[in-house]
Amino acid sequence: MLRYHPLDEQGAITYALKFTDLFPENAQLICRKVGDGNLNLVFQLTDKRSGKSIIMKQARPFARAIGESWPLTLDRARIESQALINHDRICPGLVPKVYHYDRVLALTIMEDLSNHLIMRKGLAARKRYPHFASHIGTFLARTLFMTSDIALPAQTKKKRTVQFMNPEMCKISEDLIFTYPYFDSGENQFNPLIADTVEEIWMNNQLKLEVAKLKDGFLTHAQALIHGDLHTGSIMVTEEDTKVIDPEFTFYGPMGFDIGAVIGNLLLSFASHEGHTPDLGERMNYQEYLLTMIEQIWTCFEKEFRQLWEKEAKERMAVIPGYVDHYLLQVLEDASGYAGCKMIRRIIGLAHVWDLESISDPKLRANGEKLALSVGQKLVLERRQVKEIYDITSRVRQLVELG
Amino acid sequence: MLRYHPLDEQGAITYALKFTDLFPENAQLICRKVGDGNLNLVFQLTDKRSGKSIIMKQARPFARAIGESWPLTLDRARIESQALINHDRICPGLVPKVYHYDRVLALTIMEDLSNHLIMRKGLAARKRYPHFASHIGTFLARTLFMTSDIALPAQTKKKRTVQFMNPEMCKISEDLIFTYPYFDSGENQFNPLIADTVEEIWMNNQLKLEVAKLKDGFLTHAQALIHGDLHTGSIMVTEEDTKVIDPEFTFYGPMGFDIGAVIGNLLLSFASHEGHTPDLGERMNYQEYLLTMIEQIWTCFEKEFRQLWEKEAKERMAVIPGYVDHYLLQVLEDASGYAGCKMIRRIIGLAHVWDLESISDPKLRANGEKLALSVGQKLVLERRQVKEIYDITSRVRQLVELG
């Protein structure tokens, strides 16, 4: 039996030929290493004869960030492959197909999405994705509703909670999203030009109290099987197609965390456009497009979620008038709060986003970062006043006009 | 290796001598069967020579209620024994000592509490328990706080959540507490004299919506390792001592569920005293004693919980000003709601309480049942207005004065 060892290009080719029937015997495979290998090794294998290609993703037993390295469970590869299979069943076509999983090597072989672009980059280039709001709204509604206690027998849901218990990956989120950014921790890093704003956040007890409540929800609210890391770097797009990838952080948590991740990352893109789009008219035009996209995502999500509630609910209390309205309002409030947390951590914390990092002028970048921090704080602090999606987007419009 | 089989008296004696060293070889054991055996077989073994006694509790692979019988996991015996050991570590002296656990036989051998009285019966006899509020307040504060994300590293807490995942026992609560009583289900049973009031409840969408929210909290809010069935039949008392028994329903759930169980059951006793205490002065006197007890329980709980938060919190966000106040307010709101649910289910649902069932005159019993339903509904519907424990007790006082 094979023991765990990191694959190299040749090893990847040998594995694919020996342990899978994905390619014919006479295949002429070429292998290309993709990505930075900080958490995972990713290889693209292509058969030169047929043109068929696949992705092999192998988890590494540690994570690396800025020189530091810490051990990290290989079990996340199991969780990721099982989550992808689960999502593909619930939302066919919206995640890459899984072809093969190897527990010992922590290896998943899946559909190649090389003709797709990481969404974050497309947004920086002001690309438009006419089907994205509907796709991601559907993905959110179906994956969240169908794994919840409203749709599943409570005993099945409890088994899933155990299957997807993901303590080590959750700990990364608990620390990096909800803790370090709110203290003067060595793990933080930020643009020195925004130091004053960051220090104000560290002193803002009201904000920190609201973040503590949101963290508590992340720790205790086992509402649905969430993706857990649904930023625009975990979404690959073409004009026609959307694929959600990398559910390594999957666990049973609050629905609003996933929706907030999408909203927060679209708003991080929003905040970055002063750096990417010098022309004011063009910039405002695209920023307005992003806000409309957020509105459409929630609208699609809500519509589909209500249909599922109507048709698929197994929970007997679901028929009670007003229950779905209350439920969605709580999800929206959470989404606002988590969107805010996601924005703040990407400015102050350890892991930043390419949208802003790719702005080379520190002053221009600081403008975007300050805007992101203003929006993020507002979404956390005022989330209980958010009664519809426009209460989020109008707050952003207002902040920009005031700025 | 032994296979599971139900013990009888002789089998219990043989087991104790053969598989434990609880008694000397020359012990003269006598065995007495205790309880109704609906869910568990319970034996008391006494050594006539030394007077030493123990309790042997064996789970049966089914539950029986009113003739019906359904299969029930033996794993609950593991959960119960592990919970008792955990509680004894956290709250020494407040639970029976576990001496021995046998997985195959689903058998727990523990401290004999025959000199203690089931609290429910003591309350019907208007006994007073000067240390009870402090004991149970400590039990609640310590077991709930010390198993929460505030006290435990998040990864440890997640492991405990899996260890104590208890789907089958939870399902009983989900159905019998939060579902059947709110529909005209065959599982319900109630005094025909209160049929009008019960039908009003079935039509009360506002109440049912609030119960749906509380049920959702029971299903999704993995806040602390709760007892899960902390009524006054799970508490054994003497004037000096308090022991919490039978944690078969233990799982990670909302703290307020345990506190609400205690409050709700004291209020069920309150509502039963027209049937037990004909003398008005005496009755009002004891009822006031019960309300004061509820106030003292919360006060003790809160004091101890705040001290633990101050001294034992591992969660870094715990230091944020106002967090503990907010946290406790949520727990109190939940406690009010769950107290109400617990009261209502004991009047309308399948399983009733001896406090009221022992009133033979149906009219007199109906008076108590209606009072319990009024109090229960108020505690559910007005829980968000509950800002301190007196907001609960004053509502009860008010209802009685109006009645």
TrEMBL record, chains A, B:
Coiled coil: none annotated. SUPFAM superfamilies: Protein kinase-like (PK-like). InterPro entries: Aminoglycoside_PTrfase, Kinase-like_dom_sf, Methylthioribose_kinase. ATP binds at N40, K57, E111, D112, L113, D246, P247, E248. Residues 32-263 form the Aminoglycoside phosphotransferase domain. It catalyses: 5-(methylsulfanyl)-D-ribose + ATP = 5-(methylsulfanyl)-alpha-D-ribose 1-phosphate + ADP + H(+). Its EC number is 2.7.1.100. Substrate binds at D229, R345. Pathway: Amino-acid biosynthesis; L-methionine biosynthesis via salvage pathway; S-methyl-5-thio-alpha-D-ribose 1-phosphate from S-methyl-5'-thioadenosine (hydrolase route): step 2/2. Signal peptide: none annotated. The keyword Secreted does not apply. The keyword Transferase applies. Keywords: Amino-acid biosynthesis, ATP-binding, Kinase, Methionine biosynthesis, Nucleotide-binding, Transferase. GO terms for molecular function: ATP binding; S-methyl-5-thioribose kinase activity. One of its GO terms (biological process) is L-methionine salvage from methylthioadenosine. It comes from the Bacteria. Catalyzes the phosphorylation of methylthioribose into methylthioribose-1-phosphate. PANTHER family: METHYLTHIORIBOSE KINASE (PTHR34273:SF2). Homodimer. This is Methylthioribose kinase. It comes from Paenibacillus prosopidis.
